[in-house]
Design a protein that fits this description.
heterodimer; A: 247 residues; alpha+beta; Ubiquitin-like (UB roll); Fumarate Reductase Iron-sulfur Protein, Chain B, domain 2; five-stranded mixed sheet; 9 helices; 13% strand; elongated; B: 132 residues; mainly alpha; two-stranded antiparallel sheet; 4 helices; 71% helix
Chain lengths: 247, 132
């Protein structure tokens, strides 16, 4: 195994260039070093001006997503040795505007996330003294995989529909809406239906499936979307045939 | 929530041939294109029904027209696209339909397998109807 690997890192410094370029850095190639360790080495030892996001270093916070050799990855969970002898090309996540270097602008997602109301909505709150809302393991299993989403945006980066039409609600927002729709404690399905059943909601998805392949936490947003299409279609037919039972 | 006023965001452009960069992207674009051929298949079947309704002479004319090389080529191409469309639909069904029997979820493979089996049975019946 060579003791160094070349990292080609995308740089975008808006004050001095109109489009991203690449800078090359040689970093130590260690068995236990992830791409993020390489970036940290560059920042600490070679070029302090490099900008990127990171926090937990253990695949929990979802901050360190980037495009590594063309694939959306968490840089903390992607090892340099897998790309030996190199080079490793690190670019910002695709489909997002770039603020600087590897840092992308996520306001669009944050706006969409709020729209799907990703929290438990109750028709009637039970008094605190009655205790917690109980749930069986089977009821938990219904939504558990969707609750694993860490908002890392790898699915948006992998989704060509979002790349072509930024109005598309997108995989993570829909998967998180389903996380609550399928929760036995939630009564907010009808509120989410309005946003999810729009043309830019689930119907925007044409089932490429790359979102589910890109997800580092094993969430299946493509499955969530297809499943909700059936829910939305059933609700539309029901509303047509039985307009008096709107709920 | 409005976007923060950053100095200058760089907005990457989607390349014209982006869909050639990954097999799943290529299949996605082909599947989008398949709707044209699915529509043609529907039109072709309606023309067949019309020809049958108008009697043997019109039906024979339809058969002669269908035997022209360009139409055979078009229909073979359409069949390939309709198959791509149908297989995608069948593979997708277990993801869209979550069925439970006695509190246990039916495995996706079983669901997809039963759809494929039904497809084969109906196809075999149609072959028997035409050839047998």
């Amino acid at each position: 195994m060579p003791d160094q690997i070349t990292m080609q890192v995308a740089r975008y410094r808006p004050e001095q260039e109109d489009a991203p370029t690449f800078d090359e850095y040689d970093v130590p190639l260690r068995k236990d070093w992830a791409v993020l360790d390489g970036l940290n080495y560059i920042k600490d030892e070679l070029d302090g001006t490099l900008s990127y996001r990171w926090s937990c270093r253990m695949g929990i916070c979802g901050s360190c997503g980037a495009t590594v050799n063309g694939e959306p990855k968490l840089t903390c969970a992607t090892f340099l040795t897998d790309y030996a002898p190199g080079p490793v090309r690190v670019e910002p996540l695709a489909n997002f505007p770039i603020i600087r270097d590897l840092v992308v602008e996520l306001t669009d997602f944050m706006t969409k996330l709020g729209k799907v109301r990703p929290w438990i909505i109750r028709d009637e709150e039970q008094p605190v003294e009655e205790g917690e809302y109980l749930q069986t393991p089977a009821e938990l299993e219904e939504y558990k995989q969707f609750s694993m989403c860490i908002n890392c945006m790898l699915c948006y980066s992998a989704c060509p529909v979002y790349g072509l039409d930024p109005k598309f609600l997108g995989p993570a927002a829909i998967a998180l809406a389903q996380r609550y729709n399928l929760d036995s404690r939630d009564d907010g399905g009808h509120e989410r239906l309005t946003i999810l059943s729009q043309p830019e909601g689930v119907w925007g998805c044409t089932y490429v499936g790359e979102c589910s392949r890109a997800c580092p936490k094993g969430v299946d947003p493509a499955g969530a979307i297809q499943r909700y299409k059936l829910t939305a279609a059933t609700a539309a037919v029901k509303a047509l045939l039985m307009p008096w039972s709107q709920r | 929530m409005s976007a923060p006023p950053y100095a200058r965001l760089y907005k990457p452009k989607v390349r014209l041939l982006w869909w050639l960069s990954r097999r799943s992207y290529t299949l996605f674009v082909l599947r989008e294109l398949s709707s044209v051929f699915v529509a043609w298949t529907v039109v072709y079947l309606l023309l067949l029904v019309r020809a049958v309704a108008r009697g043997p002479a019109e039906y024979q004319r339809f058969l002669d027209w269908s035997a022209s090389p360009w139409l055979v080529a078009l229909n073979v191409l359409s069949l390939a696209f309709v198959l791509l469309h149908a297989i995608t639909f069948m593979n997708l069904t277990p993801q869209a339909m979550v069925l439970h029997v006695r509190g246990r979820r039916i495995p996706g493979r079983l669901l997809a397998g039963s759809i494929y089996a039904t497809w084969l049975l109906v196809s075999a019946f149609l072959v028997w109807l035409v050839v047998g």
